[in-house]
Amino acid sequence: MRKNSVKNVRINTEVQHVLAEIIRGGIKDPRVSPLTSVVAVEVAPDLKHCKAYISCLGGEAEGKETLAGLKSATGYIKNQLAKKINLRNTPELTFVLDQSIAYGVNMTKMIDDVIAQMPERDEDLDV
Fold this sequence. Notes:
single chain, 3-stranded mixed beta sheet, about 50% helix
C-alpha cells in the first residue's frame, strides 16, 4: 500500500475522527485541556504506527501538559481505538504537539507589523 493511497487516506481520516471523539469524551485526566483538537493523523502503510498531531488552545505550557496527559493515557486510547475501528493491527500511538496554528498567527502578526511600518504610497502619482 502506497503512502498516499485511497485506502491510507480513508484510514487516516477515520482514525482522526475516532481519536478526536475519544479525547473529547473519554479522557478524564485533568491535564488534558478540553480545548484539544486532533489536527492530522498519519498512519503508517503497515498499520503499525500512528502519529497524531494535537493542537491545544492556550499557551505552550498548557500544550505540554495536554501532551503529557495524552501520553499517560495512550493505553486507554489504543484500547478504545481498537474497539471502535476494525483494523488488522491497532497502531502504536505517538502524539506530537502541532504548532502550525501558533506559527500562522505569529506570521500574520509579523506581516501586519511590516505593513504598518511601510510609508504610505500615493496612488495618484503618474509614473
